[in-house]
Write a structure and sequence with these properties.
It is built from 3 helices and 10 strands, in the order E-E-E-H-E-E-E-E-E-E-E-H-H. 17% of the residues lie in helices and 33% in strands. The chain has a single domain, classed as glutathione-dependent formaldehyde- activating enzyme (gfa).
Length: 163
Amino acid sequence: MSETIREGGCACGALRYRLRGEPIFVNNCHCRQCQQQTGGTSVVNAFTETENFELLSGELTQHTVKSGSGGPHRIFRCTHCGTAIFSHYPRLGELGLGLRVGTLDEPASLTPDAVVFTAERMPWVTLPDGIPQFEAYYDPARVLPPERFGRLADMVRRREANA
């Protein structure tokens, strides 16, 4: 079985990247912070181990904002056009990243595992059928298949050991 490879890039084309393997989980987040940070109604992030991301061309800048937990949420953007490519969130630190699915060449290749923070969504946004929905967050152990949850748990353990 061959490893899944996805590629993507920024809006101006200066930055290109490669993503190896399948993500641990994909969330469609409707929280107010994601709305402010994207200027949209929500964001879809694919979470994976940082070593699965490879920058092929271009340069990244980083901007730090507060996450929902109050910790540092670092957003990495194309230096030229400012497109947000991925983030490091406090819970996983440098070990994991949340890739903006919309920057993939084929964004429809990933479907969210969950729709989160639906209590904060715009009242006119219709939520998709067939995808678990949560007013806030969820227990990943109850939603993710065991293999993917094991990858997440391993990252959290490694993060806590290095904190």
